[in-house]
TrEMBL record:
Keyword Cytoplasm: no
Protein family (similarity comment): Belongs to the class I-like SAM-binding methyltransferase superfamily. RNA M5U methyltransferase family.
Keyword Methyltransferase: yes
Protein name: RNA methyltransferase
Amino acid sequence: MRLKIESMAYGPDAVAHADDGRAVFVTGAVPGDVVEAEVVREEKRLVKARVTAVLEPSPDRVEPRCPWASVCGGCPWAAMDYAAQLAAKRDNVVQSLSRIGHLGAERAEALVAPVLAPGASWGYRNKVELAVERRRGRAVVGMHAQGDSGVVKVDRCLLLDADHEGLVKAVSGSLSYLANSHNLNVERVGIRASRRTGDVEVALWTEPSPFPRAQAAKILGDATGASSIVRVMTKGPLKARKLAGTERLDGNGWWQERILDETMRVSAPSFFQVNTLGAEQLVQLVLEALEPGADDAAMDLYSGAGTFTLPLARRASWVDAVESYGPAVGNLRHNLERAGIDNADAVGGDAGREFPDEGADIVVVDPPRAGLAPDVVEKLSTLDARAIAYVSCDPATLARDLDRFEEAGRFSPVWVKPVDLFAQTFHVECVTLLRPRS
């Protein structure tokens, strides 16, 4: 097919239209390109294709900095100029609010600010994950290939902080060596590295089975100088794995990062934003939205290890923090105690079931990609709060939830500010301010 590329989807692919009007999702293209593309899959309403030749390159096409960008799934937008990436991300947010959130094109355009870029577009990550597969009897450690078609062996990741990009080669080499003499059953490997604290953690995600603990700790420790090496054990179906336990193989057993004025301890199973500068931008936007005062009662739902809980507690009279993931609750309690904060309560459990009874003047919610459960939107909509800050990592579920808030009739969005925590990818974080209707 010969195609003129029109825009980027919320995903790795670009979008064009075939002669019969069907949308064509094209891997490897940039808006403005004229390409020759090979059909990968045809459906009634759409076509999947991949670029075989760029006939006329877009003005926004650039040479990717990463030599593996065309085969690795980690930076699918790397061939697009960064300013064009930011514009495409804003457009995706606007389209989601307009179509899924039923806000209409004009209102969505007015709500969504330009995308904020908190730092460099390469070398910004404090964490990467490596994939592991067996190939002809040997372990291959690297990055997920485009389209999840196996593992690409790489010797560094240019998205990881430049001071630590060599950790990828060190870890993959160590595991490949270990796997020659041991059945490791490693499913994936998390590497966390902080330029600010100097902490490096290697987390091996495995099944709960026999494991060469001492050898793994020795070889990985010598290769990486890690301050923490841990094993995270999970069990159950592949798409619904549950935590079965963690083991400290060497070092602290946890990783630390500094966010603005706070030092956060995070254990390997717990979520933490992969972009430290981006996380600071999110905190600043939440504080800007909520304007916490000394007499305010605050609520932090899906609080994690306390990224928003701690700065809110420094400014408000009280914070009720709710988090469902056990390891993160433990991290939150430690971080509050270490910071000397005694005006916050860390509650473990589902946000709907453990919804605080006391109400709140200000609220922040930072749910996972699935967004807010319907009962949480209902309960938030009964509050006599003056502001809600909604931190979202998925424009589609954000739009759906804003539609639910609109239907409930209590809160409406005032502004949506996207933040680019994930340069070279389609992902974008948003902070939305909701206030009571006049």
